Every structure is written in structure tokens, then in C-alpha cells.
Amino acid sequence: MDLQNEQEHEGASFEAYFRDPASAADSPLAWAVSQRAAVLDALRGLFSGPPAVVQLRVWCFMELVSVPHGRITREDLNQLFHLLLPQALDNVLKRFRDVGLLVWDATSQDYSLSILARQVHGLLAPLTQATGDDDDLAPLLAQVDVAIRLRELHRQRVHHAATLRQQATDRARLLELSRQKEEAKAQALQLGEARAGAQAALQEASANERPVELLVKHANELLELAKVEGDAEQLTARLQTLQAEKSRLDGRWHELKSDRDRAQASLDQLQGQRQAPPPEDVSRFLRMLRQAGIAHHVLADVIEITDPQWRDAAEGVLRGSRWVVVLKDAGDEVKAMELAERDRYRHYVVAQAAEAPKSPDPSSLLAVLRFADTVPTWLLRQLEQIRRVANPAEGTKRGGEWITPKAFWRDSRGGRSVWVDPSQHQFGAAAVAARRESIEKRLEDLDKQLGQVAKDQATNTRQLKAAEDAARGVSAASELVRRSDEFEQARQQLPHLIQARKSAAQRWQTLDTEHGAANKRESALETDYKRVQNALEESERNARRYVGEWEEKRSALRQRSSESATAKKNFPARWLRKEALEALRKTYQNATQARLRGEAVEKDLTEGTWETDPTVEEKHTLMAATVEGQKQVLAQREASNNSASVAVSNARERYIDVLRSTVRRYRKNIVELGQLAGVEVSADLPHLDNDDTVLRQAELKVNFNFDGKGQIGLNDGEASGGQQVIKSLILLVGLLKDEETPGGFVFIDEPFAHLDVRNIQLVGHFLKSTRAQYVLTTPITHNVEVFEPADVTLVTSKKPAGARWAPPIGVLKRRVAQP
User: CA-CA distance, 462 to 217, in Å (whole number)?
Assistant: First the structure.
């Protein structure tokens, strides 16, 4: 088969190369090889490409396998391969990560060899051994192996000596940090007590200043009023100015109150949410996909940012991709695209997606993200190309595409900031916390503004009342003369009280700043202390491990040396002759070792006791086939269970959609019935989502506004009897109202009880306007308004005493006017 045919059949299965594909399963060796698919993939990754590149990969792999414990940091890795070009080393490491030989541990910040790497090493180990009896490279390879071991031993000793020196430095640093931490703690405690005292003094100064300030303001207002109270025109103008200011403040109050209500509603919407809610257009399109039975997910639901330091950077880069829709089945692409076109969905709909690599480049932005499902391939490439740098200077020096923790992104077009306000963060549970914190800050600012407006309203009310009193004849000048001593004393005291309050505020602010700085310093020292302590503990563990390993090696060498010396004493003299030693060296220095070992194994197989029943292999094959069949059955059961789970979830989603539609239709019905009754009805739709907690907490809040007197709820006691009946009828008829029967059919027991004539008229007018069919019961009354809503009236009476039958039922039917 030539190269072209091999390329054409690259995607074919192993059985496709057999004349009879079914015969491939009859070979136990073929079955055994098929069970090592991971090893085959790793070998293909190592040996694909030009010969020089393959040689480089094999050499680097064998060097990595010789590292003790199979773990190495990036710094030690650069030192181990300092002779290689950085780009060449990066390419080799990336290939090792892609085929699963090398794993990056983000917690310990080092590389480790996988179990698969140990298996591959077992296959490649013969590459370092001699290949024939007369191979002249055998002594050279032995010397190279010794040199490698000596170099590694020297490196460990140098590293151990440096570690001991660093431990001494860390212990001294720990003592110094402990002393500084205690000093900072004591200083923070002292400043906290002083700050509390200063705050109490500030509150006392403010309390002393407030009544005097109000008295001076009142005196100044009386002076301004006294100037105009004799002039009716000026007094009128002042009244108009104050009333206009009152209207402005009222408008400002309602504006801020509306902003606060919206912010509070946004905060309430986040309660109990694990993820930030999507926009309305996204929710609508996702609902359309679910109704069409198209399995999908959006990136905002499957991406988690694992490192808080890089949250701003990741949120900025992914901002434009948060609502990208990834399809589970590429066959749904056309149908999904048609729905997106119809709904004018502004975000991408993607069918080509893949799993994120398990071991991405640790310096890339992809390394700080965790994916719960597939993502677009173009996004994976983009994230892996973006390198994380500490600042723009480092990024410029490094080159390529990079981003800083503050979300400054440099790509092929240039650099720009992609920072996103925390209130707009979307990915993961931390995004909900960031949004909540931002909204809480907004609420705090609005509360401050509302407080200031309230103060201004109080001042305006006081001034307006004084002006209205003046307009009614109350003299401001007389009050000024009567309280002149009191006002003068207040004017003299106010500057001193203001100065006392400012001094107290300045002292409190200074102490508050110092207290905050002391707390930050204490926290920073505590962090440094723990960091140095953890580093020292890790260093001591590594040192003990190295010492233990060296002690084991020393004991093993000592034992082997003792055994060798003892055995040498028992050797016959002829074994120690020069020619005999030379003969042994020739025997065991090349491939003869393998031949001798093979002869020993062959002899053992011939003379030893082994299983000779040929049916063992057939039994093994049958058992393997049985296990494989059971695996297939188990896979089918799992697929069936998964399908059932998806069907249940889809049915639940559709039921919730029907429930949402029913609640919206009911709100529409009661609003329309309220218009017929002359009542403003409003209803807040509950939040319905596929979550048990959300559904349990869902409720429909209905409010009524009669005659513009304000909103009242269902159970408020402020409504009159007639209003209570109107509310009940609106809610009752709204349940039965639909497109085919606009009013439904209801049975109402004595709706006019305890109502006056006016309310009876209102209830009757509402019942007639609903176009509903209804049966009313009422006791006999002389109020004809009770019978106004009825077209047919049935009059029943109790059976009189001594009579056998009750009186006949009377029937009254309203006469319809002829046109």
C-alpha cells in the first residue's frame, strides 16, 4: 500500500484492512493491541513528523523520565534543557501535553509524568541499549548513562544546599514577620479604640450643632420673610418660589425612589440564583430552541473562571461570546439558523465545537478557565494564543498576543482595554456576587441622595409654612423681636460648634484612615507570614525526602558492597584472574546479556511446570467477548437512561412554558375585567424557571386601584364591601375567561349581601359587562337593583307549615325591547 493509499485509509478502522473484517476479532494478539489505544496514540504523537523532530522528542522524553519522582517545575525544566531554543522546547512540551504524556498541575505549579508516560518509556528503553554483539557504542552508552546519573545527583546536591540556605533565611523572615505582625495587631487595636472615641465625639458634636444650626436657619428665614411680608406681591412671589421648589423636590424624590425600586428589583432577581440571568432576547431565543427540540447550551452556562486574579481579563475577552449558542448535534444547524434569522438573534450559533484540552499551556488565558461542556473550536484557539502577563511592559517585551490582570488586551490590531464593570459579570457564581455587590453600592448611593432630598424637603416645608403663616397675618418681624436674644446667642455659638464638629470629623477621618491602613498592613503581614511558612514547610518536606532517598541509596550501596565483598572471598581463584574477568566483560557488556537471559527463559519454559491445556486461550477469548458484550449492553442502558432524563427535562421545560403562558393570559384577563369595572388592576408576574426552589417561592401578586386612591392588595382591609366583591369577581371570572367563552360560567352566592345601593349598582354593572354566564342567589328584597343584572329570575319559597308541597317556583323574564 503506497503513501497515497495510506492517507486515503487513514480514517479506516483496523478491521477494514482484513479480507474478512470479522476475522480480526479471532486474533487474541489483535485484541490485546486494541486495548492499548492510548499507548498507540502516544507513540504516533512522538514519532510523527520529520526524523530530526522525532529524535528531539525522544531525547527530551527520555531525559524527563530520568527526573526523580517524575515531577519538575518550569524553572528546573528550563535549566535541564538550557541548550535548546525556547521555541523548540515549547513545541516539544506542547506535543507531550497533547498526547497525554505530560500533565501540568496548577496547584503545585509543576509538571508531572503520567502513567501513560511510564508505559511508553518501557517500550522505548531498549533504544538506549546496545543492538549487537560487536556494537562499539555499548561502552559509550554506559558512560553516558553514568554521566547523566552523576549530573542529576550533582544537581540534587546543589539544590539541597540552596534549599538549606533558603530555609535559614525563611526562619529568620518568619521571626521578623511574627514580630511585625504582633506590632501591627497592637497598633490596629489601639487605633480602633481611638477611632471609636473620635466617632463618639463627632456624634456628640453633631448633636450639639444641629439644634443651634436649625435655630439660626429659622432666624435667617424669618429675616427673609420679614423683608417681604409687608409687600403682598413679594410675599406671593416667595410663596410661588417655595411651592415650585417643593414640586421639584417631590419630583426628584419620586425619580430617586423609582431608581432605587428598579435597583432593588434587580437585586431581588439575583436572590437564589447560581448564575446571572440572561437578557430577554437571549431567553426568548433559547426558549424557541427548546420548543423546537434542539439540544444546545450557551457559553455563559459552561465556563467557570478558576483564578479570581484573572476574572476581569477573562470577562473582557469573553464578553462578546457569552451568549454564543453551541448546538449538541450538528444536524440541527440549519433548523437553528432559521430560527435565529426569524428572531434576529445577534449572537453566533455554532455547530463546530470540541472539548477543551485537559492540559493547556499554563501561561495562556485558557489555563484559568474550566469548561463544563464543548465550546467553539475558534474560541479555544483564540484563548490558547492569548498569554497572561503581569503588565504591558512584560507583554511588549514578550511579543505576540497578551493580556494583563486589569484586562488590557493586545492582539494583532493593537492594544485596548476590555474591562467590564462588575455589575455586568456573567461567568460563574462569582459573577452573581460581583453583580450583587455593584447593585448594593448603587442602593447605598441612592439612599444617601434620598436622605439629602428628605432634608431639603423638610427645610422647604418649614419655609413654606412660615410664608403661609405670614400670608395669613402672622408677623415674622414680631417673632424676631420677641426671640432676638435667643437668635443672637445661637449666632454666636454656631461658629464654635461648627469648628468643634469639623475638628472632631477631621480627627475621626484621620484615625479611620490610619486604622484602615493598620488593618491592611496586619492582613498583608499575615499573608506574607503564611506564605513564607508554607514555603518553609514545603522546603523542609522536600529536604527530608531527598535525605531519605540518599540514605536509602547509601544503605543499599553499603549492603551491596558488603555482599559483593563476601561473595568475592568465596570465589575460586580462577574467577579472579585477568583473562577470566576479561571474558566476563565481553560476555555481559553487549547484547549477549539478552541472549543469555533468553536462553535462561527458554530453559525455564522447557523444564518448568506450565499450563498446557490449549482451551485456556479459547476460554480467555470467550470471556473477553462476554465482557465486551456486557459493556455494550451497559452502554445501551446508560444511553437509554440519558435519553429518558433529557425527555423528562424537556417535558418539564415545556410544562413551565405552558404555565408561564397561563399566568400571562390570566394577568391579561384580570386587567381587562378591571377596565370593565373601572378599576386599575396590576399583577407582578412570578419568576418561573426549571428549579424546584424557584417554583416553590413563585407567587402572583395582584393589586387594585379604586378611584385613584392608591394600590391595595388582595387581603388589605382598606377596601369597602363593594370593592371586596369586585376584587373577588374579577379574580373568579378571570380564571374562566378564554378566547372561546369570554366570560365563562360562575355560580355566585349572595354577592349583594351587606352592600348599599351604590355598590349593588356597581357590582351589577360589572357582572353585565363581563359577558359571563352566571347564577346568583339572593334573599327576597325590595331593592330592585339586586335584580338588574339578571335576565331570568326564579322565585322560590319554603313549604308553609301544614302544607304538603312548597309553592310553585315563580319565573320572571326580562322583556327585550324590540328594535
Answer: 10
User: Rounded to whole angstroms, how far apart are CA atoms 35 and 20?
Assistant: 21
H or E segment to which residue 654 belongs: helix 615-677
Question: Which amino acid is present at 4?
Answer: Q
Q: DSSP readout, 428-445?
A: SHHHHHHHHHHHHHHHHH
Extract the C-alpha cell encoding 168. 535559614
**499 grid coordinates:** 469648628
On whether the CB atoms of residues 156 and 72 are closer than 8 A, the answer is no
The two counts, helices (H) then strands (E), for the chain are: 24, 21
Q: What is the largest CA-CA distance in the chain?
A: 147
Q: Are 349 and 327 in contact (CB under 8 A)?
A: yes
Q: What is the pLDDT of residue 165?
A: 82
Q: Supply φ then ψ for residue 68, to 5 degrees.
A: -60, 140
745-749 and 773-777 beta bridge pairing: parallel
| Size of the chain in residues | 819
DSSP string, 190-218: HHHHHHHHHHHHHHHHHHHHHHHHHHHHH
pLDDT for the residue numbered 3: 40
Classify residue 364 by its DSSP letter. Answer: B
SS3 at position 717: coil
Nearest to 312 by CA among 356, 353, 365: 365
C-alpha distance from residue 19 to each of 16, 22, 235 (Å): 8, 9, 113
Q: How far apart, in whole angstroms, are the C-alpha atoms of residue 223 and residue 200? A: 35
Task: Please compute, for residue 32, the number of CA atoms within 13 A of its CA located in the half-sphere on the CB side.
Answer: 6
pTM: 0.35
- The x, y and z cell numbers of residue 311, run together, are 476574572
**DSSP letter, residue 328:** S
Residue 367's closest CA among 411, 422, 309, 319? Answer: 309
Q: 310: closest CA among 435, 394, 209, 402?
A: 402
Position 13, amino acid: S
pLDDT of residue 136: 46
Q: What averages of pLDDT result for each successive group of 10 residues across the chain (819 residues)?
A: 45 68 66 72 82 86 75 78 83 86 74 80 67 45 51 66 80 86 86 84 80 77 67 68 84 87 78 72 90 90 86 89 90 91 92 86 88 90 90 88 93 89 75 74 83 81 71 61 72 78 82 85 84 82 77 78 77 76 63 57 73 76 87 89 87 86 84 81 83 82 81 74 79 74 70 75 77 78 75 82 84 70
- Is residue 71 helix, strand or coil? strand
Q: Give the CA angle between residues 305, 309, 313 to the nearest 5°.
A: 70
Identify the three-state secondary structure at position 749: strand
Place of cell 418681624: 477
The dihedral of CA 724, 729, 730, 735: what is its sign?
Answer: positive
Yes or no: say if 216 and 494 are a contact pair by the CB < 8 Å rule.
yes
Residue 748: all three cell numbers together:
355566585
**Contact, 670 vs 683, CB < 8 A?**
yes
In this structure, are strands 349-350 and 325-327 parallel, antiparallel, or unpaired?
A: parallel
Note the pLDDT of residue 476. Answer: 64
Cα–Cα distance between 419 and 434 in angstroms, integer?
14
CA 581 to CA 588: how far, in whole Å? 11
- Tell me how far CA of residue 464 lies from CA of 55, 73, 217, 455, in angstroms: 94, 77, 14, 14
CA distance 382 to 365: 9
Q: What is the DSSP string of 656-692?
A: HHHHHHHHHHHHHHHHHHHHHHTEEEEEEPP---S-H
3-state helix, strand, coil in the chain (%, to 5): 70, 10, 25
CA distance 720 to 726: 10
Residues in contact with 418: Cβ distance below 8 Å, sequence separation at least 6, in sequence order: 313, 316, 317, 319, 403, 407, 408, 409
Of 554, 540, 555, 537, the closest CA to residue 153 belongs to: 554
- Residue whose C-alpha cell is 528550563: 78
CA dihedral for 192, 198, 199, 200, sign (positive or negative) = positive
